[in-house]
Amino acid sequence: METSPSPKKKQVLLPIVAGTEPIEASIPIDTPRRAGADVTVASAGDALLVEIMYGVKIMADELLADCAAASYDLIVLPGGVPGAVNLGGSATLESIVRKHAEKGGLYAAICAAPPLALASWGLLNGHKVE
């Protein structure tokens, strides 16, 4: 009996920085993983261990700079302040998300990340954040 090859797992990128809101990082890490996706948690800083809000520390899988050449099905930006400000200030992240968007890739942002990151990069596609 011949078996068909397993479908390729969806690839998700979740960047984190100092000041990321813990729940806004943990849910988009956990939920896609439960659904069978590979989620790469990437530090937009220069170390894999990132202190996000409330003293919570997360060990990233990779540095964001090392993810620039990879291809993702979805990029999710968590919120939190100053986390969303720090994400919005990352030229590396902006470049990754812009290239992804230009290819028609899916991207999402939570809470403060739409106005503080996506809007500053011109990637709200005509939507307003109020």
TrEMBL record:
InterPro entries: Class_I_gatase-like, DJ-1/PfpI, Prot/Nucl_acid_deglycase. It comes from Triticum urartu (Red wild einkorn). GO terms for cellular component: cytoplasm. This is DJ-1/PfpI domain-containing protein. It comes from the Eukaryota. SUPFAM superfamilies: Class I glutamine amidotransferase-like (SSF52317). Coiled coil: none annotated. PANTHER family: OS01G0217500 PROTEIN (PTHR48094:SF15), PROTEIN/NUCLEIC ACID DEGLYCASE DJ-1-RELATED (PTHR48094). Residues 10-129 form the DJ-1/PfpI domain.
